[in-house]
Amino acid sequence: MRFVIVTGMSGAGKLTAQKMLEDLGYYCVDNLPVPLISKFVELILEPNREITKVVLGIDVRADQSFDEVMEALDDLKKKQFPYEILFMDSSDATLQNRYKESRRMHPLSPDGKVIDGIRKERRILKKIKSDADYVIDTSKLLTRELKQELENIFVNNEKYNSLMVTIESFGFKYGIPSDADLVFDVRFLPNPFYIEELKEKTGNDKEVNDYVMASEESKIFLEKLTDMLLFLIPLYVKEGKNQLVVAIGCTGGRHRSVTLANELYVKLKGKGSFGLKIEHRETK
Known about the structure:
The protein is an alpha/beta fold. The protein is built from ten helices and nine strands.
């Protein structure tokens, strides 16, 4: 029996995750009244039951104390019933935008500001998040990437990557990415923009890549940046960080920054227990 409890911040993708797990063969039940949780477990454990994979969705409701949920989970633990907790999270800014786009009110602040409800919910869920076996931050996660992550964990039983590292190239003339954790400026490198045959190309083109990486400074910078990140990333994992955005910028965000972001991605791929993705903001 594999019993997964899915919870997390409202708007972070809890229901989406449940639907995806249902498609992967899990029997899903959402928001049982707290007093029925133990009874539900007893029922699915009865002999001759064919159900072997179960998901129970739990979220914050205005009409019940989440402390009762924690007590119910503690009771399952005392009875030595094994379960896993999947916590769906997202940044406050992303959650606000999602509520704004959907024109929905936050369940904990139906008559007030959405951000007040988000902050209140985050306080309530602090304990269960710290107890979670898996925390997935959907702030920058595409639907297909979420599905792949769930398949890796709950179908393929692959090692869980608690930290998702996003390498993002950008142009300083358009502003620094608002969600960047680490920002690196590569405007000191030779600029392909001033080479006529390279001007309209990007760092995704071999000619531009070769031009930028022909510089000794580019090679040294890449090696030093790789070493620093391989030192820092395990420390971020240890501190419980779930999302790390490494932003690399040049003037227009199409040549040097794209090249270095691509090269860094290759250097970091497969080098540790963290997820890795790459984005080029100005080449979309």
